[in-house]
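Batch job 17 of 40 flagged for manual review because the log was empty.
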Amino acid sequence: MSSDPINFSVVIPLYNKGPHVERAILSVLEQDHPAAEIIVVDDGSTDGGLEIVRGFKGVKVLRRPVPGPGGYAARNLGIVAASTEWIAFLDADDRWRPDHLSTLAAAIAKNDGQVGCAFTRPTFVTDGTTRPYPISKVIRTSTKPLDLHGFVAAWLHAKTCPMWTGAVAVRRSVLLAAGMFPANAATRGGDKDVWLRVMARTNGIFVPKVTAEFHQDTVNRVTKSLDHTVQPIICRSIARLLQSARPGTQSLLKRLHNMEVVYYARYAAGAGAPFNRDSLNSLCAPALRSTVKIMSFAMAGSVLRLLRSPRFKPAAFNARVAAEPVPATSPSVCDPASSRATTVRPSRAEAPRAWIGVAARSVPERRETDLPVRLSA
């Protein structure tokens, strides 16, 4: 165990989180293991959040005039400006519990020289209720450092990335070597991408204790403002890692690639986005199960696009149906008022072919997306 003190630079990206940023900074100031420095990188906030930050003494403020997707460029600026060996991240709308940094410091000191990152377990907070972040039991009961193979295995087991950004601390040198966050290359999914690249370069230690809170009932959330219509950025990193990974790890990486592609296909379907055939083209073999899932999501997405089309809104739909021509004749029925057979015109709303006409014209054209990432079997 190392006797050298573990010092942390805390990087907080800020973009229009005025109602929450004070809570975040106070949670850092209340740590029982004080941070060496707090760096808030403002991404062009316009809601008064920057003025709140400036009210705290000792907080270093950096400014970027143009907002960057996902806060990736802001975090990168904070990494470059940090003066300590270890960097911990916190979003401006989340919060740490008082023992977060001390828990990380103890784990790092215990595994000195063996790890380049450490992470704890966060909890989701929504309207006052909490729900622990899903972590694979494969690592919950282990006290040994994780390598890339174990990290990906735990990811596949829990079906979610073991590392959540607000509960992670990483050596600055490792972040720089891994390429930091994918600024200007992705609008979302960049966190998972950088943690995979980090674990490809170093070992990590997981502490199962809950020390960080991920608040979901906040304003201006990235996960609410962006959809999943392009191929995930992590697929590019997996393609590069496959070139040098061990055979067993290669198999896990291919499964991870397919899982992430399927997730994005599901999210895209929920957003009503057009089907992206590149999703199928990029799958790694064996891919039968993933292919079936993607096609199922594609069909569901088509139905959602149809139902969400303006032509299917009640007023617009009724107007279009009324404008549809109706056959001049229809089956004859007996008129009770006379002995003659009379022709009855069905109501326009009941004309069945109107449904077909509207449905056929409600499917938008397919749009082009990013080129696929092709991986060998």
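Reviewer: the log was empty due to a logging misconfiguration, but the result itself is present. The radius of gyration is 27 Å. Unflagging and moving on to job 18.
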